[in-house]
Amino acid sequence: MVLARPEVAARDAAAPEGGGPRRTATRLGLMALPLAFFGVFFAYPVASIVSRGLKDGGQWQFARIGEVITDPRIGHVLWFTTWQAAASTALTLLLALPGAYVLARFDFPGKRLLRAVVTVPFVLPTVVVGSAFLALLGHGGLLDELWGVRLDTTVWAILLAHVFFNYAVVVRTVGGLWAQLDPRQEEAARVLGAGRLAAWRRVTLPALAPAVAAAALMVFLFTFTSFGVIQILGGPRYATLEVEIYQQTAQLLDLPTAAVLTLVQFAAVAALLGVHAWTVRRREATLRLVDAAGTARRPRGAAEWTLLGSVLAVVALLVLVPLLVLVLRSFDGPDGYGLTFYRALGSAGENGGTFVVAPLEAIGNSLAYGLAATAIAVVVGGLAAAALTRREGRLVRGFDALLMLPLGTSAVTVGFGFLISLDEPPLDLRTSWILVPLAQALVGVPFVVRTMLPVLRAVDARLREAAAVLGASPLRAWREVDLPLVGRALAVAAGFAFAVSLGEFGATVFIARPDSPTLPVAVARLLGRPGELNYGQAMALSTILMLVCAAALLVLERVRTDRTGEF
Amino acid sequence: MLRLEGVTVRFGERAALDAVDLEVAEHEIVCVLGPSGSGKSTLLRVVAGLQRADAGRVLLAGRDQGGVPTHRRGVGLMFQDHQLFPQRDVGGNVAFGLRMRGTGRAETERRVGELLDLVGLPGARKRPVGALSGGEQQRVALARALAPEPRLLMLDEPLGQLDRSLRERLVVELRALFDRLGTTVLAVTHDQGEAFALADRVVVMRDGRIAQAGTPLEVWQRPASEFVARFLGFENVVPATVRGGRADTAWGKLPVPGDTPEGECRVLVRPTGVRLASAAAGLACEVTARTFRGDHVVVRLRPDGGPEIEAACPLAGAPGVGDRVGAVFVADDVVVLP
């Protein structure tokens, strides 16, 4: 691909393509389905919950909002939620950006495996991540046994678990783009007299900035709304908004307070997204993308090998050790190491009534739900991304931010909202299997949009023009030009959507039927019951979930590299 | 075939096209010639429907194209930087337009083979476009543009990025090809040699306006303005006052055609119209530079008064730098500019 000459680029900038009525209509058409989807399956359930909490006898009780917000305990929760999210994000970027670089630019044996390994934690249910870190850092954990070190009462356990969880977000979002940036751009800067660092700072960093910002935003949102990890590792001292909402909803049955907190979280996330939209608006530019396979090379020199080594060490300590502890626990039965816990998964009876069906069936359920959710997320997110490709217009930017809201909204609220709002005709879905995939797709769509948008926007507009001149309608041009070029991004997006669907817990726990639990729900049910057998089964089931995800990701990696051959 | 009526395109304050009228007849090859920034690429984009005109009409075969989207205009455009689809091989690129028109598989295969033969790339069908050289990409882009048999083929700097020998060969090939196929062509270029070799008619543009239109011979022999003359590479322009069939200039009195109106004007002397003699026989000059041009030599002369003069002279007997010579002007090569 050849870059626009400055003359052409300046002209394009000076004259944004006139938003003719036809083009506006097309864009609105593309937005229609995503808008309807979010209206019915997000805005409506959340609004239902909020109005139920804040309405008393048909009257809005806004005074409740003031009462809840001025409560010093809630203030403390809000402060902790914010600073732990900021700290987790900073720590994740610090540790994961070198990883993104290594995976994007270096070629080494086992690279594909490494990429899959770092992604596995991301798809684990949060409760499992919490348990794994408890097994590592908590009372009687590995560090306790070895050196008498316990971190489970400190905030470090939470921060490390968040890094474990979100490492993949940064590596995949930033690394995916990094791998496709033409290294010759940096070389051109070097030839013009820029040092190695200056070239990176002035050429590569600006090109990566949108991806880094997107990744940082995602990590912040995840950690801001963190639930399972804090529930387990936070103890009574630390609670995020989401944990507080869950306690108010499910344990204290204080729906008004939960409604106010949902609104607070909503407002905080909306403000955050506003800031994000404001900062990245001007930064995205047409990039020179090349085949990722051509940009990676063997590390050269001591510095590069050291970098690779330290990234591998971080991954080993941070990702592999907790996973290994998890696997070890799943085999560590009452009679020594064995398959006791795995055998117990095969039958429903031995669990003392925890399950209507054998826990093993949760695997099939999770896969089926995950595939359906992925299909929905890819269609809805793909349409939304296509509509957002052209960046002008306030309407479009508002839509962009709207798509991110589900990530920051309490999953507990969404799940509970599904139950109380989608229960009457014409939308009586309470008994339908589609309810679970719909809730899961809700969190998958933002991933699809975020992953595809930078690549879609980077496609040279004149390739579309070339297609149009050859007789392709705008839709056809999108299919023929954009789609093949973004195939990689689409595969990654689908992988992400599948992964978050498999791991989704907060909403699914409310709406999954007792006879068809998903893997995370089954794990949580097992963890919630006392006894070594239940705990061991939870570990075994988590291990299976981990293997399912790893297998799916390895397949995905293969698809990715097969496709790159066409570039 | 193609008619532009008062087409205007503004980018902010600047008019890229300023009330341009242009006609291209069926089977005609028209070349728009102009420096970069003169609006020639914008002209093609307006015709293709990739750029909306702020005023004026574009008619194809007599029908107003306002509101007709690009893909329904039935025109072909070969982009300056080709814009080959990177994810498709050569065959896939050439077949693209045919597929868009719903041409059958067998017919498409046949046409692709035919076109690749035509542009001199037989058997390149399966090659990835990334592995092609600049000249090969050029040919593929041409084949791709020709494949759907557009009623009007537009070329944006068709040979711009190629090396000289390839360019000269391709110009001849293209000309023969278009003649054979009867294609109507509208090309833009900044290279006069390319334009003159390719076109039936040349249109010179300046700042969004048409400065001159005519056959290559007309434009070459009678540049309509100093701008056109200088753009064509003519340096020997001097202010003059015409009186009694002669022009008074800083270079002395020059012969002009008899029907030249009297008064102030500018006069161009083509380099071939400057003969070198002994210093006493003509305008006394010193040779300041000598440029070898293959079959002749261009020498630069500094007269005692007035602007410098370029003269073309045969290889044999060309003076050296520092020699003093006399310049004699030939009437046939003197052109009066308005």
Description:
The complex is a heterodimer of chains A (567) and B (338). Chain A is mostly helical and 567 residues long. Chain A contains 25 helices and six strands. Chain A has one domain: MetI-like (MetI-like fold). Chain A is globular, with a radius of gyration of 24 Å. With 338 residues, chain B is α+β, with helices and mostly antiparallel strands. Chain B has two domains: 229 residues, P-loop containing nucleotide triphosphate hydrolases (Rossmann fold, 3-Layer(aba) Sandwich); 101 residues, OB fold (Dihydrolipoamide Acetyltransferase, E2P), CATH 2.40.50. Chain B has eight helices and 20 strands. In chain B, strands 6-7-8-3-9-10 form a six-stranded mixed beta sheet, sandwiched between helices. In chain B, strands 13-12-11-14-20 form a five-stranded antiparallel beta sheet. In chain B, a hairpin with a 2-residue loop joins β4 and β5. In chain B, α2 packs parallel to α4. The model of chain B has no long low-confidence stretch (mean pLDDT 88). Classes of the chains: A mainly alpha (567), B alpha+beta (338). At the A-B interface, α1, α20 and α21 of A face α1, β6 and α2 of B.
Q: Secondary-structure blueprint of this entry?
A:
The complex is a heterodimer of chains A (567) and B (338).
Chain A: H1 6-14, H2 21-54, E1 55-56, E2 59-60, H3 63-70, H4 72-105, H5 111-123, H6 126-137, H7 142-147, H8 155-178, H9 183-191, H10 196-224, H11 228-233, H12 241-251, H13 255-280, H14 301-331, E3 332-333, E4 336-337, H15 340-345, H16 361-388, H17 394-408, H18 411-421, E5 423-424, E6 427-428, H19 435-458, H20 461-469, H21 474-485, H22 487-503, H23 508-511, H24 519-527, H25 532-564
Antiparallel strand pairs in A: 1-2, 3-4, 5-6
Chain B: E1 2-11, E2 14-24, E3 29-33, H1 40-48, E4 55-60, E5 63-64, E6 75-78, H2 90-100, H3 105-118, H4 134-146, E7 152-156, H5 164-181, E8 185-189, H6 192-198, E9 201-206, E10 209-214, H7 216-221, H8 226-231, E11 237-243, E12 246-249, E13 252-255, E14 263-269, E15 274-277, E16 283-292, E17 296-303, E18 309-314, E19 324-329, E20 334-337
Parallel strand pairs in B: 3-8, 3-9, 6-7, 7-8
Antiparallel strand pairs in B: 1-2, 1-4, 4-5, 9-10, 11-12, 11-14, 12-13, 14-20, 15-19, 16-17, 16-19, 17-18
Helix pairs in contact in B: 2-3, 2-4, 3-4
